[in-house]
Specification:
about 170 residues, mainly alpha, two-stranded antiparallel sheet, 6 helices, about 0% strand
C-alpha cells in the first residue's frame, strides 16, 4: 500500500500561497492556544478580558484555514499567470508586505496618535488598499463605525482605557 499524497495536494504544495496560509493557520492556532490559557472568557455572567483574544484566535484559525484550503484547491499558478504575476510584482510591492508595513506604522503610531486617529487611518488605508478608491466616502464611514465599535467594546464592556490624542 502506497503512502503517497493525493495528486491535488502534491500539486498545490508547490504553490507558495499554500505554504504561506498554512504557516499562518499554524501561528493562529498557537495564538488561540495562548488565548485559551488566559482563563475563561466569561465569569459571573460577565465577559472577561480573555474573551476578545479568544474570539480573535477562533476567527484567525477559521479564516486562515479557509484561505489555506482555497490555496490548496487552486494549486500553483499556471505559467502565463506566473509570468503576469512576476511582471506585476516588478511594478509594485507585494500586498502582504504593504499590509505588514501598514500594521507596523499603526502599532508605532498607536501611543502617539491615540486609538481613534490611528485606528481610523489604519482601517481606512487597509480598506482602500484592498478595494480601491471607488466609493471612498462610504469606506470612510465604515472605517469610522469599526473604530467606534472597537472603542465601545474596549471602553464600555472591558473597561480598558485606550490612549487618546489629547492624553
Amino acid at each position: 500500500m502506497s503512502c503517497r499524497a493525493p495528486y491535488f495536494l502534491r500539486r498545490a504544495l508547490r504553490s507558495g500561497a499554500a505554504w504561506f496560509h498554512g504557516v499562518l493557520a499554524l501561528l493562529s492556532l498557537g495564538y488561540l492556544a495562548g488565548s485559551i490559557a488566559m482563563g475563561p472568557p466569561v465569569a459571573g455572567g460577565k465577559l472577561t478580558p480573555s474573551f476578545f483574544p479568544l474570539l480573535v484566535g477562533v476567527l484567525a484559525v477559521l479564516l486562515c484555514t479557509l484561505q489555506w484550503w482555497a490555496a490548496l484547491r487552486a494549486g500553483p499558478p499556471s505559467s502565463s499567470a506566473a509570468s503576469a504575476q512576476r511582471s506585476e510584482s516588478r511594478r509594485r510591492w507585494p500586498p502582504e508586505l504593504l499590509l505588514m508595513l501598514a500594521t507596523l506604522v499603526y502599532v508605532l503610531s498607536f501611543q502617539t496618535l491615540g486609538y481613534g486617529l490611528s485606528t481610523l487611518a489604519y482601517v481606512l488605508v487597509v480598506m482602500l488598499f484592498f478595494s480601491g478608491l471607488e466609493k471612498w466616502p462610504i469606506k470612510a464611514v465604515i472605517a469610522l463605525a469599526i473604530t467606534a465599535l472597537g472603542f465601545l467594546i474596549f471602553n464600555e464592556i472591558f473597561n480598558i482605557r485606550l490612549p487618546t490624542l489629547w492624553g
